[in-house]
Amino acid sequence: MARNPLRTGASAILYQPGVFFYLSRTKSPAPPLTLPLTLPRCSHTVSSYSTARMSAGANCSGPIAPPVAKKVEHRMEMFGDARIDNYYWLRDDSRSNPDVLSHLHQENAYTDSVMAGTKQFEDDLFAEIRGRIKEDDISAPIRRGPYYYYERNLEGKEYVQHCRRLVPDTDAPPSVYDKMPTGPEAPPEQVILDENIKAQNHSFYHVTAFQVNPSNKLVAYAEDTKGDEIYTVYVIDAETGAAVGKPLANVTSYVEWAGDDILVYITMDEILRPDKVWLHKLGTEQSDDVCLYHEKDDMFSLDLEVSESKKFLFVASESKNTTFAFYLDVSKPEDGLRVLTPRIYGVDTRVSHRGNHFFIRRRSDLFYNSELLASPLADASNTTVLIPHRESVKIKDMQLFADHLVLFERENGSLKVTVYRLPALGEPLTQLQGGRSVDFVDPVFSVDRSESQFSSNILRFSYSSMRTPPSVYDHDMDTGISVVKKIETVLGGFDESNYVSERKWATAPDGTQIPMSIVYRKNMVKLDASDPLLLYGYGSYEMCIDPSFKGSRLSLLDRGFIYVIAHIRGGGEMGRPWYENGKLLKKKNTFTDFIACAEYLIEKGYCTKEKLCINGRSAGGLLMGAVLNMRPDLFRAAVAGVPFVDVLTTMLDPSIPLTTSEWEEWGDPRTEEYYYYMKSYSPVDNVRAENYPHILVTAGLNDPRVLYSEPAKFVAKLRDLKKDDNMLLFKCEMGAGHFSKSGRFERLQEDAFTFAFLLKALNMIPNHGSAKI
């Protein structure tokens, strides 16, 4: 679990403005609560913010008064330094304190009141965004054994159906030209699980880890109904949907099959750290499950994945600097876990399997961009270097096939995919040469691995750029031919040739060149400093925010916005040193890099201060808080989503989830040097009595990564100290977590709300209708 939207070892998940992705980690349950309250200056009663957006100001002479949080002095002393937190009382881990809930409801009502005058525009904007979606659609089918598996969206429905069809000719070898038949003569579609039915009684619903057993007869899936990332795993009959055995409760979404009737899964400790891996035999009680490993070091968390060959499960124990691995032979699960790579501080290993060898991607202080090794199954310590370390190329990921190896790499901030042919099984593995790169068209883009068939010569990958909708390709690794299998449909006359995507570089105060990815509609911008601009940043956890497409963003681009991603230090876009130079005692580089990007965009005439908006989420919300305190004069408006803004107080409290595991990311403030360094940038500790731009802050009551109280305290302190009359809005989802609402249209409503806020701050909302400026 981490405050980032993507954690090492998890599937590719990230959040950009208007983009929603899930991550499988957990938090203690917190039931959604409702509490009536009386609002200042209006007599409206609020039962829950999950109801339709209130017209809180509709019957008043104007917006209701902003909530004023009471002050209750809480004194904290360390190293002779005293800090007073008047809003510490807003933290309530039970999420049931009437005063806390009342304050959050008042903040939500005030936000509705301020935005009431633009509600019609927001609704029109939502309709516009939704109108670009082909609501009845399916994902690119993936072949698993005798079936094609895929997900289906239905018109008007929030959630997906998990479906499959039989492959008509299972003896035919896979080809990039394969196509799942869908006509009247095709095998019938089978709906294995309909999330819309399961979600009917829940305000939040999310399914992940949809795992089919080797015989294709059973499915295990993990379900979260609160947004707190605590999952229940169910097993169902793939044909009938009938439940098989009892569910596994209070687990993570890490679950894999070890044969047809055995599951391996991971649970958490009291601070929500994945710490135990278990083996479960179907038909037995969860209380009888066997613990395969218990990680007692609270700096480490466990991860679980299956090899592409499906012959091994790998358990990784990982901190921010160190990862070591165990393996479980799926054919002999009773043998338990065996050590594959040892625990060596500062060494990170990621592993997979093919034939008689384990493949190991190893990073260390010396080989910081990783090298690729192979070792015999019988002697994991006897390694051969297949791809040596390269100073300018970082190995991001690897994917193995029976006859091929694929590396996903980064060079000079850009992604590349390289395919190597492997020696036949039984032949010696030596250093690989002559890899062939997959060609891409856009100057800046995003490409990620997708599930592929291990025994085939077909690599499946997903691709998009800031002007190219998400696409799925099958690539023949022998011929080099790529065939598109699915392009996300964008309705409403979208034409990617209308948009320009480019890469620019800003100079940081220490001379470092910071890459930026830029997109705009070429017939809508003037590039004379008069255009509105939205600058997004993250810069933590070695996360790479690659330039990708989002349909809702078109509602900004088509109104003349320029959209920019600042690939600042603390991320991993430029290799491992890029991350190392934006963490711990170098964290402030993240903030000054972002400011340098903003100043470059102003200097080069992309925008002015009066047209510059910024956005960041989670650890990117920390970025927002830090730069707002450092340079409040530089921006017109800011959106801080679930922001990690109470850094010092949180990192001093080991009882809070993530604290101990993230001392290697932020530092341990129980040491004096880190205490004062973190205090110097922690947003809550640095709010000052001055003018701030328009600010929107969001939170989720059930958030296990960033406690809702952090943004609540930040807003309360800003309300108390700031001198301007600009908007300061706080929106707390009372029935959701870190990733807010779960339905696909609900998320589009949030995009519409955020965009309406930005357009309101820029005075760009038309007087009537939704006509574009």
UniProtKB/TrEMBL annotation:
GO terms for cellular component: cytosol. Residues 66-485 form the Peptidase S9A N-terminal domain. The keyword Nuclease does not apply. Gene3D superfamilies: alpha/beta hydrolase (3.40.50.1820), Prolyl oligopeptidase, N-terminal domain (2.130.10.120). It is an enzyme of class 3 (hydrolase). One of its GO terms (biological process) is proteolysis. InterPro entries: AB_hydrolase_fold (IPR029058), Pept_S9A_N (IPR023302), Peptidase_S9_cat (IPR001375), Peptidase_S9A (IPR002470), Serine_Peptidase_S9A (IPR051543). One of its GO terms (molecular function) is serine-type endopeptidase activity. Residues 547-763 form the Peptidase S9 prolyl oligopeptidase catalytic domain. Keywords: Hydrolase, Protease, Serine protease. Its EC number is 3.4.21.-. It holds the Pfam family Peptidase_S9_N. It catalyses: Hydrolysis of Pro-|-Xaa >> Ala-|-Xaa in oligopeptides. The keyword Protease applies. Belongs to the peptidase S9A family. Serine peptidase whose precise substrate specificity remains unclear. Does not cleave peptides after a arginine or lysine residue. Regulates trans-Golgi network morphology and sorting by regulating the membrane binding of the AP-1 complex. May play a role in the regulation of synaptic vesicle exocytosis. This is Prolyl endopeptidase. It comes from Rhodamnia argentea. The gene is LOC115754621.
